[in-house]
Design brief:
The protein is mainly alpha-helical. The chain has one domain (2-64): Orthogonal Bundle (434 Repressor (Amino-terminal Domain)), CATH 1.10.260. It has 4 helices and 2 strands; from the N terminus they run E-H-H-H-H-E.
């Protein structure tokens, strides 16, 4: 399972949802959906825009979690 770390990275940089939406040139509702659900399916192009806005590598936006049995 993959968990997105977008919210925690943005908050660490003092970037809120509105600001990230503008910086990444993405719809606010898209950012909000990702912010509220760290396991949301997200396109690669969206991840690239967010990574560029946050000035991180795309790989830093997510982490692999062990599968629950």
């Amino acid at each position: 399972m993959i968990r997105l770390k977008i919210r925690e990275i943005a908050e660490a940089k003092k970037i809120n949802m509105s600001k990230l939406s503008r910086m990444a040139d993405l719809n606010y509702n898209t950012i909000r959906a990702i912010w509220d659900n760290d396991q949301k399916d997200v396109t690669v192009s969206t991840l690239e825009k967010i990574a560029k806005a946050l000035k991180v590598e795309v790989s830093e936006l997510f982490e692999a979690l062990p599968d629950e049995e």
